[in-house]
Design brief:
The structure is a single chain. α1 packs antiparallel against α2. The chain folds into two domains: 39 residues; 197 residues, Clam (outer membrane lipoprotein receptor (LolB), chain A). The N terminus is likely disordered. 24% of the residues lie in helices and 44% in strands. The longest helix is centred in the first third of the chain and has 22 residues. The strands form two sheets. The protein has a twelve-stranded mixed sheet. By secondary structure, it is α+β, with helices and mostly antiparallel strands.
Amino acid sequence: MLYNYLANLVRLFITFKPMKKITKSFVIVLSLLWVFTAKAQKRITEGTIAYDIVVNTGNSNPSIADMFNGATSIVYLKGYQTRFERVSSLGVESTIVDGKTGNVNVLKEYGEQKYMITMTPANWKDANKKYEGIVFEYKDEYKEIAGYKCQKAIGTMKDGTTINVFFTKDLVANNREFEYAYKSLPGLAMEFETSIGSLKVTYTVSKVNFGIVPATKFELPKSGFRVMTYEESNNAGKSK
């Protein structure tokens, strides 16, 4: 409401006052607009976002979901670097995104098996192509998540598949590639759906921390991992 009021003042100044006389007032109003916007939405330049994970199998046999029982997920942010890390009984899977180069590296650690999949920006876009052109419909439905007011949106993909998400306009990340499906939303996705194989998984933010994140979180392993390109990993999956 305040933002709209100030915006209207700008239009009135331009319409009714000579340009030489409105300069000072115009600058003041623009400053107020900037301050209001800055307070309304906090940009996360560094910190962590922790998620609770719930697996919905749609199956009376819970054994499939047991593999992810107690799983945790954390996003680490520092400048334009992000690391999305999921830890379960199966192992650890991390996606490290360099926002400056657009390059992505996926680390998979399952017992003795360790893989690092290297991806170019084009590879990353291809891996997320199902989300391209997603259209969101905003609903008049709200709830509080981790202390933030969140609004519901329903995203419709090109194939007609829909996904539900709750997002907050109070927060936005510097690098939004870790939330590829939801990066066009006017804020941070706080609860969203995704799939792991045949499982439907719901991620809900449990805590947002603005503390310092060590740069080592974004360093790539120099040994111990089998390095594969995106194309090689796809071919390996098809051959199984």
